[in-house]
Specification:
Number of helices: 15
Radius of gyration: 22 Å
Strand content: 15-25%
CATH superfamily of the domain at 242-354: DNA polymerase, Y-family, little finger domain
Strand order of the largest sheet: 5-6-1-7-8
CATH class of the domain at 242-354: Alpha Beta
Bound molecules: thymidine-5'-triphosphate, magnesium ion
CATH architecture of the domain at 242-354: 2-Layer Sandwich
Structural class: alpha+beta
Length: 364
Amino acid sequence: MRKIIHCDCDCFYASVELRDDPSLKGRPVAVGGAAERRGVVATCNYEARAFGVHSAMPTASALRRCPDLIVLTPRMDKYREVALQIREIFSRYTEQIEPLSLDEAYLDVSACDAFQGSATRIAQAIRQQVREEVGITISAGVAPNKFLAKVASDWDKPDGLTVITPTQVDEFVLSLPVSKIHGVGKVMAARMAEQEIFTCADLRRRSLDELLMLFGKFGHQLYSYARGVDERSVKPHRERKSLSVETTFAQDIAGLDAAKSKVANLLEELETRLSGVGDKRFSGVFVKLKSANFRQTTIDRRYEGDLHCALFEQLLEEAWLRMASSLRLIGLGVRFAASDQGDTKMALLKGVREEQLDLFSEVD
Ligand code: TTP
Ligand code: MG
């Protein structure tokens, strides 16, 4: 039986800002881009959440909901530094650490001897050390697998610890609402509701074939999760597959030439970011555009050579022809060839940025 801990900092970027400026305590605080630059909220504290402010919401909308909201510019270097400090605390208990983002990680502590191997006490110690040494709160979930540990860390947020022991798994899962399953968003939850599926107990009444028919290959996971089963191991090295940068313009870009003139700066930023991930071979490049009316398109190309402006300008032109509209966003990126080497610690930390950036943008 494995012992997995999932740790997730509470309103991470905002917590760091509140720690560094205690005068903000008790006031609604968001971290994100400025409203006049059409920025979005990266996160906000729980005081701001009470007004309905949330991640990925345009800052302008957030200010309408909460006029007293204090909006701070992100300090990514600071958050990375704090993330490393927290990672070091995790590493006192296990090397089996799988970071999911800057503020979130799975730990497999099955082989850890601290506290006679009590995962609950290890999680308590981690939470206490993060509070005392880093100055922010981190919620944790303890369970026999990743699926349940993640549900558990969210159960009593903020500043919570929830433990699901092996004997409690069945009871816990039976009453678990499907919306708590990672990967079940609003759309899928609505489709499940149409099928009278609201909890994992309802899922269990369906055969694997039925679930596969209804939800595609995700049906396999649903079938196992509904039984409290998740065999996925904690993978210490997640290899980064791509890296990209993007800009949302304060004013829409009207012509192809104007759009092309943005490539040089973006490429420079991309190269700066690439210098941080070490020597990796490319397998492809891509350009992503979002139109003024929020349509999005991405052109992907296999490519293994050096990066240069003309290459991205060409892709941009192809993508532009599809859009036939002025642009609010341009993104450039590279895909990496699979390597057999693990990433460095810093590259791992940087790797999460892209997933976070993706959260800012709608998909087709
Ligand atoms: P989350 O762990 O999803 O959110 P959080 O830590 O702010 O709040 P909580 O866990 O208490 O619900 O994300 C961690 C950080 O990642 C968050 O502080 C800011 C960043 N982030 C974005 O930049 N954009 C996003 O859309 C999301 C969800 C997070
Ligand atoms: Mg968090």
